[in-house]
Amino acid sequence: MTTELTAERQLTEQERQHLHTLYKEFHQNPELSMQEHRTAERIERELTALGISSFRCGGTGVVGIVENGDGPVVAFRADTDALPIEEATGLEYSSEATGTLPDGTDVPVMHGCGHDSHITGLLGAAQVLLRNRETWSGTLVLIFQPGEETAAGAAAMIEDGIWDKAPRPEVVLGQHVSPGKAGTVDISAGPAMAMADSFRVTVTGRQTHGSQPQNGKDPIVAAAAMVTRLQSVVSRELSPLDSAVVTVGTFHAGLKENIIPETAEFSLNIRSLDEDVRSTVLNAVERIINAEAAAAGLEQPQMERLYHFPLNYNDETAVDRVLPALQKAVGAQNVAESKPRMGSEDFGLLGSAIGVPSVFWFFGGTPDGDPEGPVNHSPYFAPVIEPTLTAATDAAVSTLLAWLGRS
Amino acid sequence: MTTELTAERQLTEQERQHLHTLYKEFHQNPELSMQEHRTAERIERELTALGISSFRCGGTGVVGIVENGDGPVVAFRADTDALPIEEATGLEYSSEATGTLPDGTDVPVMHGCGHDSHITGLLGAAQVLLRNRETWSGTLVLIFQPGEETAAGAAAMIEDGIWDKAPRPEVVLGQHVSPGKAGTVDISAGPAMAMADSFRVTVTGRQTHGSQPQNGKDPIVAAAAMVTRLQSVVSRELSPLDSAVVTVGTFHAGLKENIIPETAEFSLNIRSLDEDVRSTVLNAVERIINAEAAAAGLEQPQMERLYHFPLNYNDETAVDRVLPALQKAVGAQNVAESKPRMGSEDFGLLGSAIGVPSVFWFFGGTPDGDPEGPVNHSPYFAPVIEPTLTAATDAAVSTLLAWLGRS
Amino acid sequence: MTTELTAERQLTEQERQHLHTLYKEFHQNPELSMQEHRTAERIERELTALGISSFRCGGTGVVGIVENGDGPVVAFRADTDALPIEEATGLEYSSEATGTLPDGTDVPVMHGCGHDSHITGLLGAAQVLLRNRETWSGTLVLIFQPGEETAAGAAAMIEDGIWDKAPRPEVVLGQHVSPGKAGTVDISAGPAMAMADSFRVTVTGRQTHGSQPQNGKDPIVAAAAMVTRLQSVVSRELSPLDSAVVTVGTFHAGLKENIIPETAEFSLNIRSLDEDVRSTVLNAVERIINAEAAAAGLEQPQMERLYHFPLNYNDETAVDRVLPALQKAVGAQNVAESKPRMGSEDFGLLGSAIGVPSVFWFFGGTPDGDPEGPVNHSPYFAPVIEPTLTAATDAAVSTLLAWLGRS
Amino acid sequence: MTTELTAERQLTEQERQHLHTLYKEFHQNPELSMQEHRTAERIERELTALGISSFRCGGTGVVGIVENGDGPVVAFRADTDALPIEEATGLEYSSEATGTLPDGTDVPVMHGCGHDSHITGLLGAAQVLLRNRETWSGTLVLIFQPGEETAAGAAAMIEDGIWDKAPRPEVVLGQHVSPGKAGTVDISAGPAMAMADSFRVTVTGRQTHGSQPQNGKDPIVAAAAMVTRLQSVVSRELSPLDSAVVTVGTFHAGLKENIIPETAEFSLNIRSLDEDVRSTVLNAVERIINAEAAAAGLEQPQMERLYHFPLNYNDETAVDRVLPALQKAVGAQNVAESKPRMGSEDFGLLGSAIGVPSVFWFFGGTPDGDPEGPVNHSPYFAPVIEPTLTAATDAAVSTLLAWLGRS
């Protein structure tokens, strides 16, 4: 990785070592969405050490504000939550943490989406910019957002009045680690990340003895038929030139093999890049679930909406300013313009809630960008520490300076 | 219900009230298979109060022995365990108990199979017979067996040497509550209850982000295909004149809707009345599971045997003695000869382990024998206390006397 | 095979050779249901040669009447139609015949159900009985019924007034070749053969280019889902102790691989032994077909009833007379009492239409009764000529004499 | 539609009427692929009338050559075959034609893909250019290609030496009618139409009586499972940002509802825009078909390749010349640059076989371009005669002149 940032705008070796320590600490102490209590406290301690004042927002969210004279207000967001995954990376600093899901289930927890690198990269950028106060002016808003994985965190911060408590920015920036090669960055103008809709479906049958199917109604066979039939939404109801995903991510039914249970419950995650496609998919999914229940002689299942992620849209004008800054940060040959991603983010809400443009990009985390390697949400997802963290820091510094830098 | 038992061989009103209290106590304190610690202690207290010596066998099993002069040895077995079901009967004495499955899951527990009535009926019969010692001679072996639902209990008692510690009987008797009309009994000569085979199947895919199916292998879609395809075993591979059941009683996969999980796990319960049919079904089930994994590009799933229940066979000669005794107990018009049942029991092992015949019958538990009503293993299964318990007691007294009665 | 029929009541060697020739001639000239024109003519020629008067009834049906003094009237029925199967037996006298289905499709034709042996056996019995006129008295009605495979023939003969034109019998007898061992017979009292219901289902989608599924509605995917889901009727909605079959015997859709067609058509054949089971199955089948169409966003498919076969019920009193006659014909050790068969017959209609009892049995056709060997409707089904035809003749002679024989 | 072609380069009213007559004649006389005998004769008569010499090539292919002095050689291709579809447009000039598929099935035939408009448009362009000989110079090669729908025709013409018999062109042009608005044209540079792969799959079970599934192996249930499971290829194994189609266009099994047939046969049509995606899909399809056969206990089905269509690639440099010519022909506002189409063409082979670039575009055929209306291969697909045919003619004239026109 070759940065064109001036020497003083790069991490010192001591700062870098500190970031590594911080990263491992976050990695070993992951917390589930909206339960990021220790994570928030650790961030607060770090901000305090840097002399940055902060306030809590949206429960476990933290907002730090650095006022540095006249000039634009720019916000940069890092998300802080982790996932119910049992880490299998074999890393020395692997997580052994556990947590409790809202339904009471105890689960292992892992930073399987790499948000620990987001926190660390933003703290690194804050440190560099504070050390170089004379080279920029304006106001920097550091947003450490909880609950991204459940689409709850950005909404909670807005609900809690983040834009009443912090100055309104003219742009909101954010970044995410990916399985790309460490030291590279990719970005797309326009649609950047998919809409997501998530539902919990409860199929109610009639419980009976496992040896007497005729006396009950089997919700597992019905729900399995739904899962099978849902495959035809993408394969038959959409143009092959359109993009959508229908994933059944959980399926839970029954406590004992010799009882046909009363209910089966599964959850759905649906992605789309376009409102028409989204509407076609949502209608088809609901139609199939209801019809398969009817095929099994069951009542209409209960479909409970879990959340909706909006389209994450990268403002084209703002991208025109971000792109050269990224090229400066990691070298022009290391910045790619890419297709939209089917992943989703609630990042966009932070800007759209107040009509402000936002830009979001991805930085690589693997030594060689192996396309067959583990991806986000895999129990094996293990970004290398360097050059990942330095690139994340440099990218944040450089893009913030694109608005805040003195000439 | 009209019994032809003499007055002294019937429950006194005071005994009946005591049995009702006992029954409710067992019903409110159900325990999972092989964890029947308090149940065993309660049975022991009751035997002690009756002056019957007992010993523990197979962990939570209890064996009481009543020696009453020369004569045959006869064993009568009641099973004692309950199920992971959340009771929904609305009964005043409903269970609110919980328990922990072997895998660590906390679950509600209910006597959803009615074993509480088995315990109570056998204790009632013991009391009546002790009060009428002069009218019979021989040895009565009272077996309170744990872990019937998991096919573990009879095997555990045999393993623990029940037939070394207790005298060997010439017949083993047993009974089970059913959704039939309270006060009636039904029995079949020859094959009485099905063989059962149970397996846990673990389908291993490759975990990935829910928006990137192409980067993983979806074990939920694969396992759903297995559930769907398994329906064709009974529908296409067996003669319609043969009998078998293939039930998938549990299906568990995934912790979060936006992660395609690494594994899906389901459990199977298979019933058959005939070794050829059993073999056809087991082969077909394994073939389908392996082939559906191959269809999904997955490795062969792990199939772990949970248990095997043998065929529960009613010795025809012994039935010839039991049948008139049952008719005497509840009235000839209330005794039916029935087809075999697809339910399974480890009861038969207690006799077959030592080459001794056994007989097993069903007594009704509902006011009107409504064929549409809740059945065993339903959260609504709620036998009426009377005449259910009196009939169970009378049936046990009368059949025991068929071997032990003087003249 | 050991018969106890007197020598004169057995086939002479010359008669037997003639039957063999006749059998091969029928086998090589099979005709589809209700198109048995040449078959009817050949039967008529044979009856004429025997001096038996006959009349046409129900189109291609033939009825021969032999009046032989006072006494009971007894009818014996042989069915005459063949199937759209391409013979693969490799027999020297294999069929190379073709025919045209009602929908215009040209198909190969084979006596794959063995009706050729039914015709021959009944002609053989007529010959023997005519040669022994002095040993019996009464009236013999020989029914050569067309269209059994489509349930059309018995109804057509009744509709055409068979029982106005022929004297009313006191019993109707009939027999069918099976894969059992040649020279043996089996019979069941009470329910003998299943009810059958057959439907043609037309699933209407919306035709489109094969590369544009989003512009049409795929009826093949919908109909495949129906076939798959129908497997759960037998596996989940019936007691394993009940008997039913749901077979999809045909599935036709599309003319070109790059067009998603407008419609898919399949046909269903449903068997049951009991009205309750039948009703459960028919309701479930219709429910599933309609719901799967809804899942695919299609209109309710058209379900056209093709036919209904009634339960073929063997009158118990008449069986008491048939059974010893069969034992006399083929030896007591060669007669078995069997379970009902899931096959269906319109035979029962001939008696039930006028309230007359009927009895139907099976005679084996294979050298060793190999249970793995080809069965009726297989392209490999190839009864051996002897002792099959002699047994069929003897069984018909002996059972007819059970009513008609002098002392 | 507004053309900028000079008056003399437009159709005269008389010419237009003649084209209409020709179009209806072709529409009413459609012929199946590689059987376009009368169509070829009719084209030849028309070329002769125009004074154009022609030769047969590839059986029913016709090549006309117009030499007009020095200059480039340019080829223009129209395809001539029709489809096995029963026309349902209700048009006065509807087809009532029938044809015979290679397997002997008699089928209705329709110009359901609109190739009749291709023939007519090219004949119209030839007429206009012959009338304006003085305004251009070079050689025009008119290719009337048979068998496009089966990917057989272009290959047959190349095999038959078209480029030995006709002068080698520097570009090959072609066009296709679409459901777009009549008078408009759309084109994409680079990948223009998908690769297609087509297979016939024969699933072999074991035939038996419909009431005895246990004695056979049901190929219909197995093939239905394949169709169902194939839906997961697109839904689970591809990136949602990639494009592919897996269509089962035909499914044929069984002749009688009460026979489980020996075999089921279906055909597959697979589209892709990229070799990697194609390879993933082909592997997955084969894997699923083999595994589902194994699930049913069947041998590996026979998969017979029917054809492969290559990617239809529009040479970017040639598009740069075609695009303004199309804008001139129908007005700039009526020309759109579009995404690739999932449809396939063997058009590209005519150029790629000799390393010559080619360009292919679409002209609309419906009054209003209704996106919900019938598409190619629908029995309701009914392009309006005008302005469809005039636009097709103008587009051909204008693009040919882009190479051949005198300044």
From TrEMBL, chains A, B, C, D:
Q: What is this protein called?
A: Amidohydrolase
GO biological process terms, alphabetically, are:
diaminopimelate biosynthetic process
The residue ranges of the Peptidase M20 dimerisation domain are 198-294
Cofactor, free-text remark: The Mn(2+) ion enhances activity.
Q: Which UniProt keywords apply?
A: Hydrolase, Manganese, Metal-binding
User: Can you name the source organism?
Assistant: Nesterenkonia sedimenti
Residues reported in the UniProt entry to bind Mn(2+): 113, 115, 149, 176, 377
**A GO molecular function held by the record:** metal ion binding
Q: Which NCBIfam families match?
A: amidohydrolases
